[in-house]
Amino acid sequence: MRLGLCIFVVFWIEYVSSFDEKPYKCPDGNELHSSLICDGKGQCSDYYRYADQYDENFEFCVDPRSEYFKLHMKTEYQENGTLYLSWWFEEKPPSNSTDEKIRYLRDTDDVVEAGYFLTAKSPHHTVKKTLVYARRHYRMHCLKPWTNYEIILRPFYQNTVIPNSNFKVGEAAIQNVLTHPAAPSAPTAFYIVSVHKGNITMKIHHPDDWNGKPTGYRVRWQAQEDVSQQGHADFDFKEEDLSRYVETFVNLVAGRDYTLNVSARNRGYDKTFLGPEIKKQVITEPLDPVKVTAQSIGPKEIDVTWRTEGFADLFLVAVCNGSCPAATRRITPFLPGFYYSTENPESV
Protein backbone atom coordinates (compact mmCIF):
# COMPACT_ATOMS: atom_id res chain seq x y z
CA MET A 1 0.00 0.00 0.00
CA ARG A 2 2.84 2.39 0.88
CA LEU A 3 4.59 1.63 -2.44
CA GLY A 4 1.38 2.28 -4.34
CA LEU A 5 0.94 5.60 -2.58
CA CYS A 6 4.51 6.66 -3.42
CA ILE A 7 4.00 5.78 -7.08
CA PHE A 8 0.82 7.84 -7.11
CA VAL A 9 2.56 10.84 -5.55
CA VAL A 10 5.33 10.77 -8.18
CA PHE A 11 2.72 10.53 -10.94
CA TRP A 12 0.50 13.25 -9.40
CA ILE A 13 3.33 15.76 -8.88
CA GLU A 14 3.71 16.18 -12.64
CA TYR A 15 0.32 17.88 -12.67
CA VAL A 16 0.73 20.07 -9.57
CA SER A 17 0.81 23.77 -10.28
CA SER A 18 3.41 25.92 -8.58
CA PHE A 19 2.82 27.99 -5.46
CA ASP A 20 2.92 31.74 -6.01
CA GLU A 21 5.32 33.18 -3.43
CA LYS A 22 3.97 36.69 -2.94
CA PRO A 23 3.25 38.93 0.08
CA TYR A 24 0.05 38.25 1.98
CA LYS A 25 -2.15 41.22 2.92
CA CYS A 26 -3.96 40.91 6.25
CA PRO A 27 -7.44 42.39 6.78
CA ASP A 28 -5.93 45.25 8.80
CA GLY A 29 -3.71 46.19 5.84
CA ASN A 30 -0.52 44.72 7.28
CA GLU A 31 1.51 42.93 4.60
CA LEU A 32 3.37 39.74 5.44
CA HIS A 33 6.36 38.31 3.63
CA SER A 34 5.49 35.10 1.82
CA SER A 35 7.86 33.12 4.05
CA LEU A 36 5.50 33.85 7.00
CA ILE A 37 2.59 32.15 5.27
CA CYS A 38 1.74 28.69 6.63
CA ASP A 39 4.43 28.82 9.33
CA GLY A 40 1.93 27.87 12.05
CA LYS A 41 2.01 31.21 13.87
CA GLY A 42 -0.97 33.12 12.52
CA GLN A 43 0.41 36.65 12.27
CA CYS A 44 -2.87 38.01 10.88
CA SER A 45 -5.16 36.49 13.53
CA ASP A 46 -6.20 38.27 16.72
CA TYR A 47 -7.50 37.05 20.06
CA TYR A 48 -11.03 36.63 18.78
CA ARG A 49 -10.03 34.82 15.58
CA TYR A 50 -8.99 31.28 14.91
CA ALA A 51 -5.33 30.70 14.11
CA ASP A 52 -6.13 28.84 10.89
CA GLN A 53 -7.65 31.85 9.16
CA TYR A 54 -5.94 34.39 6.91
CA ASP A 55 -2.20 33.60 6.54
CA GLU A 56 -2.73 30.16 8.16
CA ASN A 57 -5.82 29.33 6.15
CA PHE A 58 -6.51 25.59 6.41
CA GLU A 59 -7.64 25.54 2.78
CA PHE A 60 -4.02 25.83 1.58
CA CYS A 61 -1.89 25.48 4.74
CA VAL A 62 -1.17 22.08 6.20
CA ASP A 63 -2.00 21.62 9.87
CA PRO A 64 1.27 22.45 11.69
CA ARG A 65 0.63 19.46 13.94
CA SER A 66 1.33 17.34 10.84
CA GLU A 67 4.77 18.92 10.35
CA TYR A 68 7.07 17.25 12.83
CA PHE A 69 10.29 18.47 11.21
CA LYS A 70 11.58 21.92 10.28
CA LEU A 71 13.07 22.43 6.82
CA HIS A 72 16.56 23.97 6.48
CA MET A 73 18.37 24.95 3.27
CA LYS A 74 21.85 26.16 2.29
CA THR A 75 23.82 27.07 -0.82
CA GLU A 76 26.69 24.68 -1.48
CA TYR A 77 28.25 26.65 -4.35
CA GLN A 78 27.39 28.50 -7.55
CA GLU A 79 28.98 28.57 -10.98
CA ASN A 80 28.06 30.09 -14.37
CA GLY A 81 24.52 31.00 -13.39
CA THR A 82 23.88 27.67 -11.64
CA LEU A 83 23.14 27.48 -7.92
CA TYR A 84 23.70 24.21 -6.08
CA LEU A 85 21.25 23.89 -3.17
CA SER A 86 20.88 21.28 -0.47
CA TRP A 87 18.36 20.91 2.35
CA TRP A 88 17.55 18.76 5.34
CA PHE A 89 15.04 18.42 8.18
CA GLU A 90 15.40 18.80 11.92
CA GLU A 91 12.85 17.65 14.45
CA LYS A 92 10.73 20.47 15.80
CA PRO A 93 10.72 21.01 19.57
CA PRO A 94 7.33 20.67 21.25
CA SER A 95 5.44 23.95 21.21
CA ASN A 96 4.64 25.55 24.55
CA SER A 97 3.56 28.95 23.26
CA THR A 98 0.88 30.56 25.44
CA ASP A 99 -0.51 32.71 22.63
CA GLU A 100 -1.40 29.86 20.27
CA LYS A 101 -4.94 30.19 19.00
CA ILE A 102 -7.52 27.45 18.91
CA ARG A 103 -7.50 25.85 15.51
CA TYR A 104 -10.74 25.65 13.63
CA LEU A 105 -9.91 22.09 12.52
CA ARG A 106 -9.89 19.85 15.57
CA ASP A 107 -8.48 16.84 13.74
CA THR A 108 -5.10 16.82 12.08
CA ASP A 109 -4.88 16.45 8.32
CA ASP A 110 -4.30 13.00 6.84
CA VAL A 111 -1.50 14.03 4.50
CA VAL A 112 1.68 12.63 3.03
CA GLU A 113 4.78 14.50 1.91
CA ALA A 114 4.55 15.03 -1.84
CA GLY A 115 7.27 17.45 -2.94
CA TYR A 116 8.69 20.95 -2.85
CA PHE A 117 8.04 24.26 -4.54
CA LEU A 118 11.36 25.95 -5.23
CA THR A 119 11.28 29.64 -6.15
CA ALA A 120 14.12 32.07 -6.95
CA LYS A 121 12.83 35.66 -6.96
CA SER A 122 14.41 38.95 -7.89
CA PRO A 123 12.77 42.27 -8.85
CA HIS A 124 13.12 41.47 -12.57
CA HIS A 125 13.48 37.69 -12.80
CA THR A 126 11.78 34.66 -11.24
CA VAL A 127 12.50 30.95 -11.63
CA LYS A 128 10.13 28.24 -10.35
CA LYS A 129 10.60 24.49 -10.04
CA THR A 130 8.51 21.65 -8.61
CA LEU A 131 10.56 18.84 -7.07
CA VAL A 132 9.76 15.40 -5.70
CA TYR A 133 9.95 14.94 -1.95
CA ALA A 134 12.77 12.39 -2.10
CA ARG A 135 15.24 15.02 -3.33
CA ARG A 136 17.69 16.63 -0.94
CA HIS A 137 19.67 18.73 -3.40
CA TYR A 138 19.11 20.55 -6.68
CA ARG A 139 21.06 22.51 -9.30
CA MET A 140 19.09 25.64 -10.15
CA HIS A 141 19.99 26.88 -13.63
CA CYS A 142 19.41 30.01 -15.71
CA LEU A 143 19.93 32.57 -12.94
CA LYS A 144 21.05 36.03 -14.01
CA PRO A 145 24.54 37.22 -13.02
CA TRP A 146 25.04 39.77 -10.22
CA THR A 147 21.43 39.56 -9.07
CA ASN A 148 20.01 39.40 -5.55
CA TYR A 149 17.74 36.37 -5.42
CA GLU A 150 15.44 35.28 -2.65
CA ILE A 151 15.44 31.48 -2.65
CA ILE A 152 12.31 29.94 -1.11
CA LEU A 153 11.90 26.18 -0.67
CA ARG A 154 8.45 25.13 0.51
CA PRO A 155 7.21 21.56 1.11
CA PHE A 156 3.74 20.58 -0.03
CA TYR A 157 1.51 17.69 0.97
CA GLN A 158 -1.20 15.53 -0.57
CA ASN A 159 -4.29 14.30 1.23
CA THR A 160 -4.24 10.51 1.61
CA VAL A 161 -7.99 10.21 2.06
CA ILE A 162 -8.98 12.33 -0.95
CA PRO A 163 -6.19 11.76 -3.52
CA ASN A 164 -7.46 14.27 -6.07
CA SER A 165 -7.84 17.12 -3.59
CA ASN A 166 -5.73 20.26 -3.73
CA PHE A 167 -2.28 20.19 -2.20
CA LYS A 168 -1.44 21.97 1.05
CA VAL A 169 1.82 23.74 1.78
CA GLY A 170 3.96 23.89 4.88
CA GLU A 171 6.54 26.18 6.42
CA ALA A 172 9.18 27.41 3.96
CA ALA A 173 12.95 27.68 4.22
CA ILE A 174 14.40 30.90 2.80
CA GLN A 175 17.84 32.18 1.83
CA ASN A 176 19.15 35.31 0.09
CA VAL A 177 21.85 34.85 -2.56
CA LEU A 178 23.83 37.30 -4.69
CA THR A 179 24.85 35.51 -7.89
CA HIS A 180 28.36 35.86 -9.25
CA PRO A 181 29.20 38.55 -11.81
CA ALA A 182 29.86 37.85 -15.49
CA ALA A 183 30.93 39.81 -18.54
CA PRO A 184 28.48 42.56 -19.55
CA SER A 185 26.62 42.46 -22.83
CA ALA A 186 27.77 44.66 -25.71
CA PRO A 187 26.89 48.38 -25.74
CA THR A 188 23.56 48.85 -27.48
CA ALA A 189 25.10 51.46 -29.83
CA PHE A 190 27.75 54.14 -30.17
CA TYR A 191 27.85 57.19 -32.40
CA ILE A 192 30.52 59.59 -33.60
CA VAL A 193 29.60 63.05 -32.33
CA SER A 194 32.47 65.01 -33.88
CA VAL A 195 35.88 64.60 -35.46
CA HIS A 196 38.39 67.43 -35.19
CA LYS A 197 41.81 66.58 -36.53
CA GLY A 198 42.72 63.47 -34.53
CA ASN A 199 40.20 64.06 -31.73
CA ILE A 200 37.13 61.82 -31.96
CA THR A 201 34.19 62.44 -29.63
CA MET A 202 31.70 59.59 -29.34
CA LYS A 203 28.46 58.81 -27.54
CA ILE A 204 28.15 55.29 -26.09
CA HIS A 205 24.80 53.79 -25.12
CA HIS A 206 24.89 51.38 -22.20
CA PRO A 207 24.45 47.59 -22.55
CA ASP A 208 21.15 45.95 -21.69
CA ASP A 209 22.79 43.76 -19.03
CA TRP A 210 25.74 44.96 -16.95
CA ASN A 211 25.99 41.62 -15.09
CA GLY A 212 28.15 43.31 -12.46
CA LYS A 213 28.95 46.72 -11.03
CA PRO A 214 29.18 49.15 -14.00
CA THR A 215 32.72 50.50 -14.32
CA GLY A 216 33.18 52.05 -17.75
CA TYR A 217 34.15 51.30 -21.32
CA ARG A 218 37.16 50.25 -23.36
CA VAL A 219 37.76 51.89 -26.74
CA ARG A 220 40.15 49.98 -29.00
CA TRP A 221 41.42 51.35 -32.32
CA GLN A 222 43.25 50.00 -35.35
CA ALA A 223 44.47 52.03 -38.35
CA GLN A 224 43.58 50.28 -41.59
CA GLU A 225 46.73 51.40 -43.43
CA ASP A 226 49.20 50.73 -40.63
CA VAL A 227 48.93 47.80 -38.22
CA SER A 228 51.34 49.54 -35.84
CA GLN A 229 48.75 52.28 -35.27
CA GLN A 230 46.68 50.43 -32.69
CA GLY A 231 45.90 50.69 -29.00
CA HIS A 232 43.14 51.05 -26.45
CA ALA A 233 41.97 53.33 -23.65
CA ASP A 234 39.76 52.59 -20.63
CA PHE A 235 37.22 55.17 -19.47
CA ASP A 236 35.69 54.92 -16.01
CA PHE A 237 32.57 56.45 -14.54
CA LYS A 238 30.78 56.30 -11.21
CA GLU A 239 27.73 54.09 -10.94
CA GLU A 240 25.70 56.90 -9.36
CA ASP A 241 26.41 59.03 -12.46
CA LEU A 242 25.05 56.34 -14.77
CA SER A 243 22.58 57.72 -17.29
CA ARG A 244 21.34 56.37 -20.63
CA TYR A 245 24.68 57.04 -22.32
CA VAL A 246 28.12 58.58 -21.79
CA GLU A 247 30.29 60.79 -23.97
CA THR A 248 34.04 60.33 -24.26
CA PHE A 249 36.82 60.98 -26.75
CA VAL A 250 40.10 59.55 -28.03
CA ASN A 251 43.04 61.39 -29.57
CA LEU A 252 44.36 59.59 -32.67
CA VAL A 253 46.62 60.40 -35.60
CA ALA A 254 45.04 62.85 -38.04
CA GLY A 255 44.27 61.78 -41.61
CA ARG A 256 43.89 58.05 -40.95
CA ASP A 257 41.17 55.47 -41.53
CA TYR A 258 40.40 53.73 -38.23
CA THR A 259 38.26 50.92 -36.94
CA LEU A 260 36.94 51.74 -33.47
CA ASN A 261 35.82 48.91 -31.18
CA VAL A 262 33.87 49.67 -28.00
CA SER A 263 33.13 47.24 -25.15
CA ALA A 264 31.64 47.61 -21.66
CA ARG A 265 33.56 46.94 -18.43
CA ASN A 266 32.24 45.93 -15.02
CA ARG A 267 33.54 44.71 -11.68
CA GLY A 268 32.52 42.12 -9.14
CA TYR A 269 34.37 40.47 -6.27
CA ASP A 270 37.55 42.49 -7.10
CA LYS A 271 37.62 41.21 -10.66
CA THR A 272 37.10 43.17 -13.89
CA PHE A 273 35.08 41.74 -16.77
CA LEU A 274 35.19 42.90 -20.39
CA GLY A 275 32.18 42.37 -22.65
CA PRO A 276 31.90 41.82 -26.43
CA GLU A 277 32.75 44.64 -28.84
CA ILE A 278 30.78 46.64 -31.36
CA LYS A 279 32.70 48.50 -34.07
CA LYS A 280 32.50 51.45 -36.42
CA GLN A 281 34.70 52.89 -39.18
CA VAL A 282 35.87 56.49 -38.85
CA ILE A 283 38.30 58.74 -40.72
CA THR A 284 40.18 61.38 -38.79
CA GLU A 285 40.37 64.83 -40.32
CA PRO A 286 43.81 65.59 -41.83
CA LEU A 287 45.85 68.53 -40.63
CA ASP A 288 45.79 71.76 -42.60
CA PRO A 289 48.48 72.23 -45.27
CA VAL A 290 51.29 74.57 -44.29
CA LYS A 291 53.66 76.80 -46.26
CA VAL A 292 51.29 77.20 -49.20
CA THR A 293 52.85 79.14 -52.09
CA ALA A 294 51.40 80.14 -55.46
CA GLN A 295 53.46 81.41 -58.40
CA SER A 296 52.12 82.42 -61.80
CA ILE A 297 53.75 80.50 -64.64
CA GLY A 298 51.49 81.64 -67.46
CA PRO A 299 48.37 83.59 -68.40
CA LYS A 300 46.16 80.80 -67.07
CA GLU A 301 48.53 78.69 -64.97
CA ILE A 302 49.68 78.90 -61.38
CA ASP A 303 52.22 76.68 -59.71
CA VAL A 304 50.91 75.86 -56.22
CA THR A 305 53.10 74.12 -53.64
CA TRP A 306 52.45 73.14 -50.06
CA ARG A 307 53.61 70.86 -47.30
CA THR A 308 51.39 68.74 -45.12
CA GLU A 309 51.95 67.47 -41.61
CA GLY A 310 50.62 64.02 -40.91
CA PHE A 311 48.65 61.90 -43.35
CA ALA A 312 46.32 62.94 -46.17
CA ASP A 313 44.95 61.23 -49.27
CA LEU A 314 43.38 64.05 -51.28
CA PHE A 315 43.67 67.82 -51.47
CA LEU A 316 41.25 70.47 -52.65
CA VAL A 317 42.79 73.30 -54.65
CA ALA A 318 40.51 76.13 -55.70
CA VAL A 319 41.16 79.51 -57.28
CA CYS A 320 38.55 82.21 -56.79
CA ASN A 321 38.06 85.80 -57.89
CA GLY A 322 38.83 87.66 -54.69
CA SER A 323 38.51 85.79 -51.39
CA CYS A 324 37.25 82.21 -51.61
CA PRO A 325 34.11 81.52 -49.55
CA ALA A 326 34.57 79.36 -46.47
CA ALA A 327 32.74 76.51 -48.20
CA THR A 328 35.72 75.92 -50.46
CA ARG A 329 37.85 75.19 -47.41
CA ARG A 330 35.49 72.69 -45.81
CA ILE A 331 36.08 68.97 -45.97
CA THR A 332 33.52 66.59 -44.56
CA PRO A 333 35.65 64.45 -42.21
CA PHE A 334 33.58 61.29 -42.64
CA LEU A 335 33.78 61.34 -46.47
CA PRO A 336 37.23 62.61 -47.53
CA GLY A 337 36.37 62.49 -51.22
CA PHE A 338 33.35 64.80 -50.89
CA TYR A 339 34.03 68.51 -51.10
CA TYR A 340 32.25 71.84 -51.19
CA SER A 341 33.38 74.49 -53.68
CA THR A 342 32.41 77.89 -55.04
CA GLU A 343 30.09 78.18 -58.01
CA ASN A 344 32.86 78.60 -60.59
CA PRO A 345 36.19 77.75 -59.02
CA GLU A 346 39.16 77.44 -61.31
CA SER A 347 41.06 74.28 -60.47
CA VAL A 348 44.78 74.28 -60.93
UniProtKB/TrEMBL annotation:
<protein>
    <submittedName>
        <fullName>Putative insulin/growth factor receptor</fullName>
    </submittedName>
</protein>
<feature type="domain" description="Fibronectin type-III">
    <location>
        <begin position="183"/>
        <end position="288"/>
    </location>
</feature>
<dbReference type="InterPro" id="IPR013783">
    <property type="entry name" value="Ig-like_fold"/>
</dbReference>
<feature type="signal peptide">
    <location>
        <begin position="1"/>
        <end position="18"/>
    </location>
</feature>
<dbReference type="InterPro" id="IPR003961">
    <property type="entry name" value="FN3_dom"/>
</dbReference>
<keyword id="KW-0732">Signal</keyword>
<keyword id="KW-0675">Receptor</keyword>
<dbReference type="InterPro" id="IPR036116">
    <property type="entry name" value="FN3_sf"/>
</dbReference>
<dbReference type="Pfam" id="PF00041">
    <property type="entry name" value="fn3"/>
</dbReference>
